[in-house]
Structures are given as C-alpha cells and as structure tokens.
C-alpha cells in the first residue's frame, strides 16, 4: 500500500515503524519545537502531495498537531488511541501494531479552517458528554468511533464541529 500524502511524525522510530508496514514518506518534527525549516517543509508538502499529521497520543503530540493545523490549513489528521500505542513506560506511534497503524491511517480527516457550528454547546451538553465519569465514558465511545484519540470535553466539542457532525449524528454514535 502506497500513501500519497506525506505523513508528519515526531521522530525516526515512528518513520521506521510506518515504513516497515506501508510505503510512505515522512517528515519528522524532532519534538515539540517546530523549526521554521520544518514548518516550511510541511507547508510545501501540503501544497504538492498533501499531509497527514500522525503524532503520538500524548500532550506533546497534541501540541505539535495543534501548531501545525493552525499554521498550515488543510492538513489531514490521523489519531491512534493511547492504549493501542504504549508500552509499560512509553507512549508513541512507534509502539502500535501494524493493524492499529493501518486502521488509524484509514480514518483520516481534514479540519475545516472556519467551521460553521454544526452542534451547539447546549446540544452537546444534552448528550451527557461533559461533567462526571459517565461523561468521560461517553466521550471515549464517540472518540473511538470517529478515531479522534481521547479528547477532553472541550476538545471533543471542537472536533465534532470541525467534522461538521450534528446532534443527530452524535446521538447515532452513542446508540451503537
């Protein structure tokens, strides 16, 4: 399988694991400090081949993802759940199985730069996705179905709107 887009990862180990199971090119960020040179490279790749951001499911990975999405609109995003990408001591894309990597890459999506609100905060609250342990479980259920990682309440609300999902769409996901 050859992936047309260039995959943005955090380091060499991520590149090695991805290239061992799929035919792809990568750009490595080398940590949370994104250099001007790296951002220019990602921007050029986005214009010519497209970009998939596939960072680790942890705080530094989310920081990198957010920075790239803000500076370079139109990037695709792939997420892997933390429990699928960790060892007893580390979390990272390089620790995921081939099956889980391919699954995550088959569910990429692009954030809309100026999304129109498709679900209001009041509707979101009515779904029980904010406040309490039950809400965390419900958020996890929605996030797993959409391959969104494990977002907190505000982040899930934002991502649902970015994906233009409606109240009805989320209700359907919760019923499954």
UniProtKB/TrEMBL annotation:
SUPFAM superfamilies per UniProt: Toprim domain (SSF110455)
Keywords, sorted A to Z: Cytoplasm, Endonuclease, Hydrolase, Magnesium, Metal-binding, Nuclease, Ribosome biogenesis, RNA-binding, rRNA processing, rRNA-binding
Enzyme Commission (EC) number: 3.1.26.8
Source taxon at top rank: Bacteria
GO biological process, one term: rRNA processing
Ranges of residues in domain Toprim: 4-90
Catalytic activity: Endonucleolytic cleavage of RNA, removing 21 and 42 nucleotides, respectively, from the 5'- and 3'-termini of a 5S-rRNA precursor
Record PROSITE patterns: TOPRIM
Cell location: Cytoplasm
GO MF annotations in UniProt: metal ion binding; ribonuclease M5 activity; rRNA binding
CDD domains found in the cross-reference section: TOPRIM_RNase_M5_like
Signal sequence segment: none
Any one GO cellular component localisation term in the record: cytoplasm
Record PANTHER family: DNA PRIMASE (BACTERIAL TYPE) AND SMALL PRIMASE-LIKE PROTEINS (PTHR39156:SF2), RIBONUCLEASE M5 (PTHR39156)
Described function: Required for correct processing of both the 5' and 3' ends of 5S rRNA precursor. Cleaves both sides of a double-stranded region yielding mature 5S rRNA in one step.
Classification via HAMAP family: RNase_M5
Family to which this protein belongs: Belongs to the ribonuclease M5 family.
Official protein name in the record: Ribonuclease M5
